[in-house]
Amino acid sequence: APLEPLLGKDPPHRTSPGAATFDVAGLDSIAAVADTGLDSIAAVADGNTPTRTSFIPDAPVHLIRGALDEAACLRFVASAAAHGGWTTGRHHLHPTTDIPAMDLPGGVGTEALDLARDVVLPAIAAAFRPERGVNSLSFRDLFLARYDADPEKGQAGLGKHKDGSVFSFNALLSEDGDDFRGGGTWVEPVGVVRPRRGDILLHRGDLLHEGRPVTSGTRHVLVGFVQVDDDVGDNVGDENGSRRSELVLRTVASLPLGMVVEVDTGLNPTRVLVTEVSAGGEAAQADVRRGDLLRGLLVGKGEGELTPFDSRTFEDVMGVLAGRKDKGPVRLVVERWAEKGAVNENDDRIK
Ligand SMILES: O=C(O)CCC(=O)C(=O)O
Ligand SMILES: [Fe+2]
User: Fold this and answer.
1) Does the complex come out with an ipTM higher than 0.90?
2) Ligand 1 in contact with 221 (CB < 6 A)?
3) Bridge partner list, 211
4) Which atom of ligand 1 sits closest to the CA of residue 209?
5) Cβ neighbours, 10 Å, residue 115
């Protein structure tokens, strides 16, 4: 029987098929000073984000005002504090001190994913009008980052860089002037943008930008990197699954040992492998690599529950696969997170 892509139906990093589109009336745009004659825009160059602009097509930076209310911002920050496992090894050129959104406890991981899918992706589609619309957008990384003025606690800012994404966003979770001083995001054509708590700043990833150092206190942001798939059409996320998933499945169907692999660029550094293992198959053929931390495993047909693997190792997974070897085909969905410190060429900040 042909494999049905498990991903592509309603993958967690894409907007839902029926998601409402975003009304540009909900966006404030920040254009390069030279592009407008407006005083309120010019003020941005001096570090003062105007309190109200309106949507300006083709502006390099947009703000979704009040995307998160105060309670949600506090929930995100509290969840990060409760998790506490801050990493600095997920982005190698310009590392941030962060926690992958999926790891945030208390339902906040899901809340962050829903926000990115249902609010941010449609807003990015409305703001930047990518040719193939919202269905071509997916976020490949989503994490909560922390900046602290106290060098003992971590980094105060993030130096000038470009992201490896097509679009990037960051939601300010802390109260400017109360939780921290300094901060803000400097973006090359517009200067320092100082959103209010709950606002989400949207910009093209290839613009030079900087997380300005905080001078006191702690600043928390939820950051996401968004990619544009040009090989997928409107059917991404529809009932038939994504064209890309089918393409990948077909391409790899010729792998030896009867093993079919789908690698989906989901949340960075998540990879998802859909693997058909026949007798004699080996997980190594499925690109499961030593050093990977495997997060979950789905055995059986269709879309069952993902069984958390927690931090089980390569050897553990090899053991599971080896144990199934002579019991006929089994379908696995393995959500793979790159080992801490591993370099992910696709998803890093660049330059
Ligand atoms: O913290 C900021 O304002 C910017 C964050 C950023 O650019 C990034 O995480 O890549
Ligand atoms: Fe960035």
Assistant:
1) yes
2) yes
3) 158, 185
4) 7
5) 22
